[in-house]
């Protein structure tokens, strides 16, 4: 068989496996359960996405369940205020055929559902899926991480409704595209057969599948970094640099690809000034541009302080965490 035929077979196989991967991740996203349906750090990223929509863009998502109920979370100034306002809330709920679905223990809030729109004076009413039960969650913007992922999660909420599957669909899409790009990179650097082998290893990695099934930052960074890599290999350096900027705007570790692109361009005998302009300044411009809505909302000084606070938080030593696991143990989901 010719090389072109082998390449076509390997690519078609990768496409079929990518569709299977998408289905597996979709099924996981539907079935996975957490605390109030938030899995791990979804509790921070999803709720902050909701808060950014409300505070920065002045818009709220909607969650209407299968029975036609509109869901809200009502936040009070204190637990005493919640108790004092309970009669007013109950009366308002009766008028819109509503009921209390959850009473929070760590924050002064109530989750409710109604058949008609709910309005209350002097209370923060957040439309959408119920919040997780964490202190000050109603004002948390997750400024220790860049905002791009929260923008995307928020957009998915607006388009598809504020429910767990909607938070996770972008991760499913990007995870599926990432695994296909992994094949393309490996095949380009080696051979289609080796590329398919690398693809299968990524497919079998339970951590990668998990991160492609829930609303976490890592799969976004991975996708944009992979996109940067394949673009650089095709000598589309501007697209590569834009992708690095998007990776860094998802999570700051995405910026570590900047020196890699710079060195690669120099090794490819690109002019040093061009390499510096594309690999350093383009990602920086993208990163700042993504942050502009937050800067406009917070003010430049407060935004800079939030970046500084985030860096300090990441550099602060913490007590020993859970046991470490070996990379070869990931493929069999070994419990360390």
Strand order in space, largest sheet: 2-3-1-4
Helix content: 55-70%
Q: Specify the structural class.
A: alpha+beta
Provide the gyration radius in Å. 23 Å
Uncertain stretches of 5 or more adjacent residues? none
Q: Count the helices. How many? A: 13
How far do the termini sit from each other? 45 Å
What can be said about the biggest beta sheet?
4 strands, antiparallel
How many beta-strand elements?
4
Integer average pLDDT:
90
Please trace the helix and strand order, writing H or E for each element. Answer: HHEHEEEHHHHHHHHHH
**What coarse outline follows from CA principal-axis ratios?**
globular
Q: Percent of residues in beta strands?
A: 5-15%
Question: Which SSEs are present, and which pair or pack?
Answer:
Elements: H1 3-31, H2 42-55, E1 70-75, H3 79-95, E2 99-103, E3 109-114, E4 124-127, H4 148-160, H5 164-189, H6 192-204, H7 206-211, H8 218-233, H9 237-250, H10 257-267, H11 272-298, H12 300-315, H13 327-330
Antiparallel strand pairs: 1-3, 1-4, 2-3
Helix pairs in contact: 1-5, 1-6, 2-4, 4-5, 5-6, 5-8, 8-9, 8-10, 9-10, 9-11, 10-11, 11-12
